[in-house]
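Quick one:
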Amino acid sequence: MLTLANVGLPMFMVLGPFYVLAFIPIVLIEAGILQRVASLAWKRALVAAIFANLISTIVGVPCVYFALLGLQWTKANGVEFTSSLGVLLRSPWPSPPYAGGEATLVAAAIVLCIPFFLASWIIEWMVLRTWLDDVPKVQVRRGVLFGNALTYAIIAVFWLVILLVHT
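Output:
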C-alpha cells in the first residue's frame, strides 16, 4: 500500500470549517458597517451582507484558493517555506516537514487572509453595487471595504493569537 506521508495539508481543509463557523459573526459585523456607512436600514444591510458573503464564500474564496494553488504548483518548486516568498507561495498547501510545526499552518492561514480579503472585497462590492443601485456607489464601496477590512483583521488577529499561544 502506498503511503503519502508528505503530501501536505491543503489549507482549504483547515480554513473551510473555520469560515463556516465565522460566517454569521462576519455577516453581522459587515452588515453593521454597511448600515452605518451606506445609511441603510438594518434589515436591508443584513440581507445585503448575507447575499454578498454567500457569493464571495461560495465562489470567491475557492477560486482564489485554487488560483493560488496553481501558482504554488507551477512556481514554488525549490522555494523553502522559511523564506518570505516561500510562505507566500506555499500557503495554499504547505508540505511537510513543517519547519515550524503547527506555526507553519497558522502562518499560512495568516498569509491567505490577504488574497481572501481582496477577493471578498472585490466580489462583494461588484455584487452590491448593482444590488444597491439606489445607494451612491462610493458609500457601497466604502462600506464593503471597511467591513471586509475589519473582519479580515479580526481573523488575522485570531490566527496570530493561536500562533502566539502554540509557540
